[in-house]
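The pair is listed for reference:
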Amino acid sequence: MSWQKLLEWDARFSTRLRLGERPGLLRKLAILLAHSGDSWFWLLGLALIWYRGTDYWRERAVQLIIGILITAVLVMLIKLIVRRRRPEGEWGSIYRNTDPHSFPSGHAARATMLTVLALYMGPTWFGVVLLIWMPIMALARVAMGVHYLTDVFGGVIIGLIIGLGGLWHLSG
């Protein structure tokens, strides 16, 4: 399969998953899930954990914040190189205006990295919750029309690499 054929298939299949223009409860849930991976949300939450948490949680918060920052830099560098335009659509103007490029999905990369690190660092329940949430949130990004399926897949691969690198660093 040629690269062009893959991109055409990706655009067709991703369009079938779209909920962005359909009113209803499923759309509202997809919006909530799509936003739940926003970096500001995670950074604010982790900052609060650092500020109010025990030493156990402070250490984890700092490690996850560092992971988020590394992920953001790597994703933005790749986006500037690849320059794939986001799918056409009306929802997600904040993403479309601040970052017009879709590959790779920063949300999927960040969520995957967080999941890998959380599964290692614990507590177990936190890692399991992220493991369930991560693919649902990533697919919500496709459903809302701000990413193609391959953007999410690429983000997951990048998140795995960064997460595994973080595990190597934390265990060494």
Observations:
- The CA atoms of residues 119 and 128 lie 7 Å apart.
